[in-house]
Specification:
It is built from five helices and six strands; from the N terminus they run ββαβαααβαββ. By secondary structure, it is of the alpha/beta class. Strands 3-4-5-6 form a four-stranded parallel β-sheet, with helices on one face. Strands 1-2 form a two-stranded antiparallel ribbon.
């Protein structure tokens, strides 16, 4: 059994075997992706690669490891050019905490284009990039579209 029921409130905790397995799973997935990146970079040496993680990887690392097999501290050790995370532009947002964890100029924040209503450039942690993501079905983010 990999999870254990605790009390009447239906919350779950995971057995030690689960954490060993999910840690192994995360490392193996990352090794496979690292091998694919190496093969692609052999043909395209200037290619820049980003890995996107769920915001929970920053706000609730234990839950992100359990749910998505994502562990940001481990991902920092690999040769990704950027680590991308969806977030908000507010000063107390995921971006600030992510910048502390990622360190350097590898963090890219994916935000909704409608979020910055002030028209002013957002204040981001040093070294953080910004990409406005398109919504499904919305007009493309091009000079002609917007």
């Amino acid at each position: 059994m990999l999870w254990l029921r605790q009390g009447q409130d239906q919350t779950f905790t995971y057995a030690p075997e689960f954490w060993r397995w999910v840690g192994w799973k995360q490392r193996e997935q990352t090794k496979v992706l690292d091998g694919v990146m190496g093969a692609v970079r052999a043909s395209y040496p200037a290619l820049k690669v980003a890995v996107e993680v769920h915001p929970e990887t920053i706000t609730n690392p234990q839950q992100a490891l359990a749910s998505y097999a994502e562990e940001l501290l481990d991902l920092r050790r690999y040769q990704y050019d950027y680590i991308a995370v969806a977030g908000l532009l507010s000063p107390d947002s995921v971006a600030v905490k992510a910048a502390e964890i990622v360190r350097g100029d590898r963090l890219v924040l994916l935000v909704d284009p409608g979020e910055n209503k002030s028209g002013k450039p957002p204040t981001l942690p040093p070294g953080t990039g910004l990409i406005y993501k398109e919504k499904a079905g919305a007009a493309p983010l091009t000079k002609q579209g917007r």
